[in-house]
Amino acid sequence: MHQSNESIDRIDSKHLLDASSPICDSAQMISQPYHLYIERTEPTLNMARYYQISIEPTLFGGVSLSRSWGRIGCHGQRIVHLFDDERPAVTLFLELAAKKRKRGYRPRATPNVRLQPPKEAASVARPI
């Protein structure tokens, strides 16, 4: 079948698939990774809290700063801030990290863990 030029020139929709998209595919990547996990533990106050901040690119060319906090071992709460570019996200990241440091949050201390080989089973294999 042969289509005439008339049918090709006719547009039957307000939305063109070949039209330029407002979303830019060449969005700049984040210049460096921003991830922070800090904790505040005070056994005398029964306090064991964590705070986590990270900056990630979004699918639409922007940047998101996500932060989560709560009691260690629990899900806690989470909030995500959206930005058009990286600079204001980094500014907020640094402000939040400074505030938490003033309140006593520190990177998690790695305990000296000595791995021990698994204990041999003392039971004797019994026939079934």
From TrEMBL:
It comes from the Bacteria. Residues 26-120 form the WGR domain. The lineage of its organism: Bacteria, Pseudomonadati, Pseudomonadota, Alphaproteobacteria, Hyphomicrobiales. It holds the Pfam family WGR. It comes from Rhizobium soli. Keywords: DNA-binding. One of its GO terms (molecular function) is DNA binding. SUPFAM superfamilies: WGR domain-like (SSF142921). Gene3D superfamilies: WGR domain. The keyword GTP-binding does not apply. Residues 105-128 are annotated as: Disordered. The keyword Chaperone does not apply. This is Putative DNA-binding WGR domain protein.
